[in-house]
Design goal:
- The structure is a single chain.
- Strands 3-2-1-4-5-6-7-8 form an 8-stranded mixed sheet, with helices on both faces.
- It starts with 6 loop residues before the first strand and ends in a 33-residue tail after the last helix.
- It is an alpha/beta fold and 489 residues long.
- Strand 5, helix 5 and strand 6 form a beta-alpha-beta unit.
- The protein contains 19 helices and 8 strands.
- It is globular, with a radius of gyration of 26 Å.
- Helix 8 packs across helix 12 and helix 15 packs antiparallel against helix 16.
Length: 489
C-alpha cells in the first residue's frame, strides 16, 4: 500500500462507501473518513476497514486532520455528505488544513447555486472545487455510475483519470463521465437529469394505471408487457426494473406492488428543476406535472375521503387489448420525447443565462450508462445533436419529428380513452398538450395580452408592426394613455 492516498472520501454511507470501493478496485489508494456516529460502539471508519474494506488499499483516519495528512499532494477530497449546510460546514473544517491547488469534490445532490457560490469562494482562497452529479444509486456507485462534473476547469485534468475510471462505460469503452462546464454546470445537469427521471417514472406509472384500469390486467400480465417493451424502442433501466417489480411476489404469493401505499416521496431535485424553468421562462410542463403528481399522491387521506363522495365515471372502454397496448407503447414513446425535449430546452436556456458552453450530445452520452434514466433512446438524442449542435428543440429533429408523427393517432386515442373513462394520466395529457401548443403557429395569447392591457395597461405588440414596438389602447374610453411596464419571460 502507498504511504499517501491518491484520493480521499469523506462520508461512508451507501454512496460514499461504494464509490470508495469502486475507486480502490481500479487501482487507487483511497483515504476514508467519517464523522463519529453517536451510539455506534465501533467507529464507522473502523467498521469499514474491518469489513468491506478489509485487506484492501484503504487508509482509515479517525480525525479529519489525520485524514488530510494521509493524502498525496495536490490533495483530492470527495465529499459524500448531505446537501446543504453540512457541505458548507465540512468545507469550513477542511479549508484551514489545505494547501493551494488542493481539490474538493462535492458528489452529493447539491443545488447548483450553492455550487456556483462554493466554487467562487474556494477559488478565492487558491483552492479548486468540483460539484459533480453522480447517478446510478447503490449499484451504480459500486460498479459504474454516470458522473457529471463541473466547477473549476483547472481541477478536471487532475481528477479525470480517477472519475472516468470508476464511471460506467458504453460498449465502445466511452466513459459516462466528462467535463460539463464551469461553476454549477455539473450539478445543474444532474438536477435536469433528476427532473427527467421524475417524468419517466410518472409516465411509466400512468401506463401501468391505464393497463390496470382500462384493460383490467394483472401484475403478471403487465410484467410480460414491460418485459417485451424492454426489448424494443423503450429499452431502459426504468422499464427493466418495472418489469421486475411487477413480477415480485410477497410472502403470500400476491404481487408486492399492490400492497405498497400509494404516496410518493421526493428529495427536491424535481421541484428545483421546475422552479428554475419558471425563472427562465421555459414550459417544463411534463416534469412539473410529475412533481405535482407526487404532491397529489401525498394527500392520501383527503383522496380517500373524496373517493367516497365524488362519483367515478362509468366505464365505457371496449378496445381490444393488443390494439390498445400497441397504442400505449407508441404514446409512451411520444410522451418520453416531449419530456426529454423540455429538459434539453431548459439546458439550452441555462447555458445562455449562465454562459456555459454545454455539449448537449455529450450530456446525452453521460446519461446513456450507469444512471437511472439510461436507455437506448439517449443514443438517438446524441445523434440529433451530433447532426445539429445548435438544435433548439428535439421535436424538429427529423428522427423525432417522424416518430411523433407516427405515434400521434395512438397518443390521442390513449389520452382520449383515459379522459372518457376517468383514468388519471396527467403526464401523457400534458405531453400531448405541449406538442399541440408547440406546433401551433398561433396561440390565443393575443386575447390574453389584450386582457392584460385592458386591466393593467401592460401593452401589446401588433402583427402588422415590427417586433419590439409596444402599444396601449384606452379600451373603455375612461383610461389615460400611460402604460405600465411588463416582465416578459
Amino acid at each position: 500500500m502507498k504511504d499517501k492516498a491518491d484520493i480521499g472520501m469523506i462520508g461512508l454511507a451507501v454512496m460514499g462507501e461504494n464509490l470508495a470501493l469502486n475507486m480502490e478496485s481500479k487501482g487507487f489508494t483511497v483515504a476514508v473518513y467519517n464523522r463519529t456516529v453517536p451510539g455506534l460502539e465501533e467507529g464507522v471508519v473502523q467498521r469499514f476497514i474491518n469489513g468491506r474494506g478489509g485487506g484492501k488499499n484503504f487508509i482509515g483516519s479517525n480525525t479529519i486532520e489525520d485524514f488530510v495528512r494521509s493524502l498525496a499532494a495536490p490533495r483530492k477530497i470527495m465529499m459524500m455528505v448531505k446537501a446543504g449546510k453540512p457541505v458548507d460546514e465540512l468545507i469550513d473544517q477542511l479549508v484551514p488544513l489545505l494547501d493551494q491547488g488542493d481539490i474538493l469534490i462535492d458528489g452529493g445532490n447539491s443545488h447548483y447555486p450553492d455550487t456556483v457560490r462554493r466554487t467562487m469562494h474556494l477559488e478565492s482562497k487558491g483552492l479548486l472545487f468540483i460539484g459533480t452529479g453522480v447517478s446510478g444509486g447503490e449499484e451504480g456507485a459500486l460498479h459504474g455510475p454516470s458522473i457529471m462534473p463541473g466547477g473549476s476547469p483547472a481541477a478536471w485534468p487532475q481528477v479525470k483519470p480517477i472519475l472516468q475510471s470508476i464511471a460506467a462505460k458504453l460498449d465502445d469503452g466511452t466513459p459516462c463521465c466528462d467535463w460539463v462546464g464551469e461553476n454549477g454546470a455539473g450539478h445543474f445537469v444532474k438536477m435536469v437529469h433528476n427532473g427527467i427521471e421524475y417524468g419517466d417514472m410518472q409516465l411509466i406509472c400512468e401506463a401501468y394505471e391505464a393497463m390496470k384500469e382500462l384493460l383490467g390486467m394483472s401484475a403478471d400480465e403487465m410484467h410480460e408487457v414491460f418485459k417485451k417493451w424492454d426489448t424494443g424502442d423503450l429499452n431502459s433501466y426504468l422499464i427493466e426494473i418495472t418489469a421486475d417489480i411487477l413480477a415480485f411476489k410477497d410472502a403470500d404469493g400476491q404481487p408486492l406492488v399492490e400492497k405498497i401505499l400509494d404516496t410518493a416521496g421526493q428529495k427536491g431535485t424535481g421541484k428545483w428543476t421546475s422552479v428554475v424553468a419558471l425563472d427562465l421562462g421555459i414550459p417544463l410542463t411534463l416534469i412539473s406535472e410529475a412533481v405535482f403528481a407526487r404532491c397529489l399522491s401525498a394527500q392520501k387521506d383527503e383522496r380517500v375521503e373524496a373517493s367516497k363522495i365524488l362519483p367515478r365515471v362509468p366505464k365505457q372502454f371496449k378496445r381490444k387489448k393488443q390494439g390498445f397496448l400497441a397504442d400505449l407503447e407508441r404514446a409512451l414513446y411520444a410522451s418520453k420525447i416531449v419530456s426529454y425535449t423540455q429538459g434539453f430546452v431548459l439546458l439550452h436556456e441555462a447555458a445562455k443565462e449562465y454562459h456555459w458552453n454545454l455539449n448537449y450530445g455529450g450530456i446525452a452520452t453521460l446519461w446513456r450508462g450507469g444512471c437511472i434514466i439510461r436507455s437506448v433512446f439517449l443514443a438517438k438524442i446524441k445523434e440529433a445533436f451530433d447532426a445539429n449542435p445548435q438544435l433548439s428543440n428535439l421535436l424538429v429533429d427529423p428522427f423525432f419529428k417522424k416518430r411523433v408523427e407516427r405515434s400521434q393517432k395512438s397518443w390521442r386515442r390513449v389520452v382520449s380513452a383515459a379522459v372518457l373513462n376517468g383514468v388519471w394520466i396527467p403526464a401523457f395529457s400534458t405531453a400531448l398538450s405541449y406538442y399541440d401548443g408547440f406546433r401551433s403557429g398561433r396561440l390565443p395569447a393575443n386575447l390574453l395580452q389584450a386582457q392584460r392591457d385592458y386591466f393593467g395597461a401592460h401593452q401589446y405588440e401588433r402583427i402588422d408592426k415590427p417586433r419590439g414596438q409596444f402599444f396601449h389602447t384606452n379600451w373603455t374610453g375612461h383610461g389615460g394613455g400611460t402604460a405600465s411596464s411588463s416582465y416578459t419571460v
